Amino acid sequence: MKQCINIVWYKRDLRISDHGPLYSSSKGNLLVLPIYIVEVEYWKQKFSSRRHWHFVHDCLFELQNDLKSLGQPLIVRVGSAIDIFDELKKRFEINTVFTHEESGNNWTYKRDIAISHWCKNNKIHLENFFCNGVVRGLKNRDDWSKIRNRRMSQKTYPKPIGLKVLSEMDPGRLPEKNDPMFGDDVLGSTQRGGRTEGNKLLKTFLYSRGSKYLNNISSPGGAENFCSRLSPHLTWGTISVREVIKECEIRCQSLTPNEATIFNRAFLAFKSRLSWRCHFIQKIEDKPEIEFRCMHNDFEDMRGGSRLDERSFLAWSTGQTGYPLIDACMRSLISKGWLTFRMRAMLVSFASYHLWLDWRKTGSFLAKTFTDYEPGIHYSQLQMQSGVTGINTVRIYNPVKQSKEHDPEGKFIRKWVPELFSVSNIWIHEPWLMTDPQQVSANCIIGKDYPNPIVNHENAVKNARQKIRFRQKRKGFNLKAEEIFQKLGSRNHISRRKVKKRRDKNQLTMEL
Prior knowledge:
The protein is of the alpha/beta class and 512 residues long. It has helices at residues 20-25, 50-70, 81-91, 106-121, 144-153, 195-207, 213-216, 223-226, 231-236, 241-254, 257-286, 309-318, 324-336, 341-354, 359-369, 375-386, 399-406, 411-416, 436-441, 457-472, 477-488, 493-504; strands at 3-10, 31-38, 75-78, 92-100, 125-129, 394-397, 508-511.
């Protein structure tokens, strides 16, 4: 007689607390088999990288211990999900597969559909649980915010009291961090994974680091210390958005009057960004093709095809564009796997407008580089910052202006672009303007020690504006934009005003 079991299939939810599938699977009398499948084909995709695996490995190592403390260790298998489930079916009578919904890449979307069909064909119940604030099968975007807020206000799932051990079940082995299946070596460091680390970051943010959050949220240097740094933990699910919100609310209730003046605004902004996080992931849930198609199809085939693309991409992706803050941000990102949001937006904007590179090309590089790569946010933001959504104001960042505003003394630039270390504050943002004697005294000859700007800012922006406007003037453009807004747009009065204004006059903003 086969043992009858429930399966808990772990994907991007690497924890035992506030875990609906794990808690619900343990409520009956059946044995529970928690499993993580290292899917070889997934790690061959153009968006995955060894940097991701380093973080995931940390998370899985801790999850193994957490589940072992409940009685049943995590089962690890390497292969395709279908093949692994087939093997489990040969050995066990599977009652239910419990798992979280995943709003991810097209690859995982197709895999989840295949598993759904497998369960149906084998008469096995598949129970999907919502993930954070993303609503599957949403009929009307107008209702999303209410549903999301209601979910976030619900109680978190407790840990199971215990799990009965599956006898004679080989737990398997986690592939090493240096296993060849995970691709190229990491060029820098990787943020540490695991729930313990996530909880520590949350506590230090809520009780100390968050006090300087608003003043440093856009700072290329300060944000590393004063932003929450929880993004990869939310991405890989060592902690849930709901847990973060509830911890934030608990902290708010304990604030002294003096603390309240410092923390209240910061926490309000922080929770707002958590909501926006769910909002953007909802976009890929509602329209998975935004991973590889422009939201507004009038922008398709607008970029790419130039013989200069490869040279431009290489300069951008290695931090050799000749614009100090652009290069510093890229080099920092490659080394650390993280960058604050505004600097990410600036990197994409520069690639998309100044270099006229297609967002799909730059997007794959950034996906591999970000430790916190979250598909729903990633592709929505790529399209927003590249001006191809049809519903967002096109914003072109001036890299010199951004440099002067967010790194006025050039400290961040000098850290990551050592060629410019001895350049004075006067020229640090525009080193190409130095005269010859100043070049010699700074031990930096522009064009030799550090490149000249790859493009002229004013000319590049002018060309980009013309090309964008040409597409916006196509017949039926605004009608399509309204359809996109109805399906994917934010539902607040500001967004509605912007869309109405856009109907009257297409907008382009250049930050000078």
